Amino acid sequence: DAGVTQSPTHLIKTRGQQVTLRCSPKSGHDTVSWYQQALGQGPQFIFQYYEEEERQRGNFPDRFSGHQFPNYSSELNVNALLLGDSALYLCASSWRALAGGGRNEQFFGPGTRLTVL
Amino acid sequence: AQSVSQHNHHVILSEAASLELGCNYSYGGTVNLFWYVQYPGQHLQLLLKYFSGDPLVKGIKGFEAEFIKSKFSFNLRKPSVQWSDTAEYFCAVTGQAGTALIFGKGTTLSVSS
């Protein structure tokens, strides 16, 4: 059983560019959450998708957007990249996260390391 | 707003020493508490979790944590650490913010053999 997978592993972009990161959830999971982990910090919640809709959003600007597909996979898009967007982007999947009231375990992928020059 | 504080940024121990990592959260309502671990080169994985009931919870690899509601704390403990416990440890909470995990900044544990 494959766990959560993310692509690409590493990415280098320049300021002002746009980037798309991809995530495939663990088999049987229907909810995908995205987190940003800056160097030396804990992961910060960006948003969560369930049934192809954004259900919760953290304190991130509109430059961060996402999508969930019918097969539950998800994309994170960041527009107008800033130097401060350099971080490890983590995807986490869970099953029926909303129904579980925050108790359902979230399984994390290996992350995509984004460097903005 | 909900927040999590981990007081120890870097802890260095010798094998067989006892471990306690501190975690405090800011929200006084119903919360769900988690400890995640990230071993070098690996994914974040769940160590243990607390929702309700017995405030002393046991997780994988001999770790345990105690929930003390009056202190808003959820400290992680292990009686005797091993070299393989070298990792970064994150305390996290869900609750007021819904199902989003709110993480602390993490504690790096280095265990020397």
3D architecture notes:
The complex is a heterodimer of chains A (117) and B (113). The N and C termini of chain A lie far apart (37 Å). With 117 residues, chain A is mainly beta. Helix content of chain A is 0%, strand content 49%. In chain A, strands 2, 4, 5, 6, 9, 10 and 11 form a seven-stranded mixed β-sheet that branches. Chain A has a four-stranded antiparallel β-sheet with strand order 1-3-8-7, with no helix packed on it. Chain A has strands spanning 5-7, 10-13, 19-24, 31-37, 44-50, 53-57, 64-68, 74-78, 87-94, 107-108, 112-116. Chain A has no helices and eleven strands. With 113 residues, chain B is an all-beta fold. Helix content of chain B is 0%, strand content 54%. In chain B, the strands form three sheets. In chain B, strands 2, 5, 6, 10, 11 and 12 form a six-stranded mixed β-sheet that branches. Chain B has a four-stranded antiparallel β-sheet with strand order 3-9-8-7, with no helix packed on it. In chain B, strands 1-4 form a two-stranded antiparallel sheet. The relative contact order of chain B is 0.33.
